[in-house]
Amino acid sequence: MTSPELLERLREVVGEEGLVTEPAQLDGYLSDWRGAYRGTAAAVVRPASTEEVAAVVRICSGDGVAVVPQGGNTGLCGGAVPDASGRQVVLSLERMRRVRAVDPVNQTITVEAGVVLQAVQEAAAAQGCLFPLSLGSEGSCTIGGNLSTNAGGTAVLRYGTMRDLALGLEVVLPDGRIWHGLRGLRKDNTGYDLKHLFIGAEGTLGVVTAAVLKLFPAVRSRATAWVALPSVRAAVELFGIVRALCGDRLTGFELMSRQSVEFVLRHGAGARDLFGAPHPWYVLVELGDTLPEAGLGGLLESALAEAFEREVAGDAVVASGSAQVDALWALREGISEAQNFEGPSLKHDVTVPVSSIADFVERTDRALREAVPGIRIVVYGHIGDGNLHYNLSKPEDGDDDAFRRRADELGRIVYDSTSSFDGSISAEHGLGQSKRELVADYKDALELDLMRGIKQLLDPRGLMNPGKVLPG
Predict the structure, then answer these.
(1) Does the record bear DNA-binding in its keywords (predicted)?
(2) Helix (H, G, I), strand (E, B) or coil at 455
């Protein structure tokens, strides 16, 4: 167990408000939001500044105590949950919520790691700018977590992932030193770009405490459509049509299977089917422009007209106002929650080349249905960047526990198929603890060796978020 002396030294750094040791108060930090992963911890430390983070890390390093960085704890792979030993310290960044600077001329915003994503969006909007990262959890996830998992979301097609949105970082290293890398430069060719080591590292190489992020001109006009399609192949063809005609005005292109939509229609409050008959697949298409009157509605209708002429689309509706736009996005955003009402949800977050999506879905669906007749396959995601959430629900009359016991087997079917198309078993959720052993079977051995070398260089004692990302 962690010594009382260590806890007292931590208390001296962060104060009474910054140290949590009572079991009732610890509970929310010890499991993920789904309840899929649970651990124990000696304490939760809640520093209020980068200097306090550095002091906490130095103390823990000196005593050989592992540190588990935690942001909004909204992840899906257990990356921010401590182990069961009770000896680790959870380092929560939730008190570090300052927006340090907004620079509309340089188009940057500098924020601390504990700032909630929605607050960054709002701070940017107050200056007439846009921070484009958009996630279902944006009201609770934090910038530190977004960086640590290289979050993607629905706007990657136009704006990229967090790797593309971050210009500079401030990081506390595993020995307590502070790397002051908060530079808002778009050109800086002075050697290795160190920030990319920490983005996507899930806290295994250091603690991100602040970041300089890119801003963009505010979007002042939008056009959104809900399109029914006969197949995934048709969706890929429609994507090509819209992209060719609309260019970088295309900000969102979200694919959903009929099964996904049926769950939302069944369990989502106020959800309704927009067409008279069901269709196998749907996409939500959104265009955006900085001009208030950009004629996007007409542009989108032209793209859809070409799709109908080529017999790609089966039906379509272009949203006529903000309420209808919100209703369309609610159908897309409600899928994950709606699936939970149907029993166990086996979640897989994969990516393949856009050109391979149709063949990938066809092959993977067939293999899963052969393995489990009646399985309900919930496929949805960001088709424009090749990212699919490939989730599985039991057959209608299936047993929950029996289905859960087959999770590894069914996951292998999805991941083996992904690998056969030169894809990745984690598109945007990270590896955490859920995929850390799996990745050894799907990632090049040399890549893993190089990753281990970086870990050894920065964290030779293995005290920074151990048991995550790298296979044992």
Answers:
(1) no
(2) helix
